[in-house]
Amino acid sequence: YSIWQACPNSVLEGRCPAEFSSNLPRHTCLQTRFLTAEAKVSAGRLNGKMREKTLSMDTLNPQVKAVEYAVRGPIVLKAGEIEKYLEEGGTKPFSEVIKANIGDAHAMGQQPITFLRQVVALCTFPELMDSPSFPEDAKWRALRILQGCGGHSLGSYSASPGVECIRKDIAAYIEQRDEGVPSDWENIYLTTGASDGIMTILRLLVSGKDSSRTGVMIPIPQYPLYSAAISEMDAVQVNYYLDEENCWALDINELYRAYQAAKLHCQPRVICIINPGNPTGQVQSKKCIEEVLHFAYEENLFVMSDEVYQDNVYTPDCQFHSFKKVLYEMGPEYFNSVELASFHSTSKGYTGECGFRGGYMEVINMDPEVKAQLVKLLSVRLCPPLAGQAAMDVIVNPPQPDEHSYKQFHQEKSSVLGALADKAKLTEQILNAVPGIKCNPVQGAMYAFPRIFIPPKAVEEAKALGMQPDMFYCLRLLEETGICVVPGSGFGQKDGTHHFRMTILPSIEKLKVLLGKVRDFHISFLKEYSALE
């Protein structure tokens, strides 16, 4: 009608455009066609013949249907429903939902590191360079980053591997961290969080059909990104089990067992390690890392080392060892041949800047022709967010002792890591005092993964409801206490064992409340199913 009104009266003469369509402007003829199409759709509805959806569950990519991601699974959806119910005035035996399901530090109340936010703010709004409120060492870093950006703006694209000066800063950081082990900045690739890098490397590795399909060795328990990626890419998941009785250590004999069993139905090509561990919180020893690298060397496996928690080590007798440094110390035969991709992120550590989606990977000993394919694959997604790249730069290039911002930066960093160490110890102590719960020391990362005893009657009830027993347990915990944790079955576990993963990120006061509620619930749960003994 609006098009009809807009047409000259000399053309329309007050009549419907359909009466003289040959004389109408093109846009009016198109309008008529759309009106005709609408009429046909209406007629179709009347005849009960609706057009079928092109994309339905029947036509959906089956690999997408196979993907599961427990960290944001059914428990979290239920927690969201309860939160909304409480906001609308509903009543529960609790006043709030405590989400201990995900390692989102700022959502749990952790404050940002001032210096990081100052640099990113200056990069985002360069006019702040004139403000006396910002220290000169932050301004200098921001100016250097902006000079590496197109148009000196964080709103530009960067080269697909990332801003060159940031890649160089990362290489310098790795050399310093690894006490002089050389790092080539051209082997550094900025990523959209560590997950982006992990997915990219797996895409390069996955190939073949039937018995030649790529097998991906992953630790069990594992971070569900790995199993989800393997399902999406139609690769073969090869589980190797961590030793819960030995503080989740990696047993080399278990690696050989898993590898030999997998060779019967796939071609194992890659081994993934998470150190410090998620969800298990262990820190692998140097000897263990040497054994893994020797195993990879012998069996010609690509090594993927997820090291996003490298700053999160709490137990005094534990130390983070990068896979690259250990590989170097094993000698040239190993260091110049084993293919290794190492990953880091802004999301964890002491900064907890999940929302910036910053990260990087260092890839060594990759075939030059394959490396060109990697760059091509990275170019398809153009580049990672530049704000995330800037945040990553601050992590690898923090204030030095002779700079103005060092004192405050050091205090904030120490405060965050000190609090996490206290909470790791507190979590272990309280959980281990509960009958039917056993929690290994939280040596690093941000999570506890306690083993829980679930009585046989509760197991039977869960099976009758079509649930995993620990899913049943965690749903009951959520509905009765408001505490949201993730069932161990979402991470993988040995048959007959049950666990849940919880983050240690809440404030010390809230963590005490959370752990107290878990203790009371678990005792009540055992009494209900007559298994307190």
UniProtKB/TrEMBL annotation:
One of its GO terms (molecular function) is pyridoxal phosphate binding. Pathway: Amino-acid degradation; L-alanine degradation via transaminase pathway; pyruvate from L-alanine: step 1/1. Keywords: Aminotransferase, Pyridoxal phosphate, Transferase. SUPFAM superfamilies: PLP-dependent transferases (SSF53383). One of its GO terms (cellular component) is cytoplasm. This is alanine transaminase. It comes from the Eukaryota. It catalyses: L-alanine + 2-oxoglutarate = pyruvate + L-glutamate. It comes from Sinocyclocheilus grahami (Dianchi golden-line fish). Belongs to the class-I pyridoxal-phosphate-dependent aminotransferase family. Alanine aminotransferase subfamily. Its cofactor is pyridoxal 5'-phosphate. GO terms for biological process: L-alanine catabolic process. Coiled coil: none annotated. It is an enzyme of class 2 (transferase). InterPro entries: ALAT1/2-like, Aminotransferase_I/II_large, PyrdxlP-dep_Trfase, PyrdxlP-dep_Trfase_major, PyrdxlP-dep_Trfase_small. Homodimer. Residues 152-516 form the Aminotransferase class I/classII large domain.
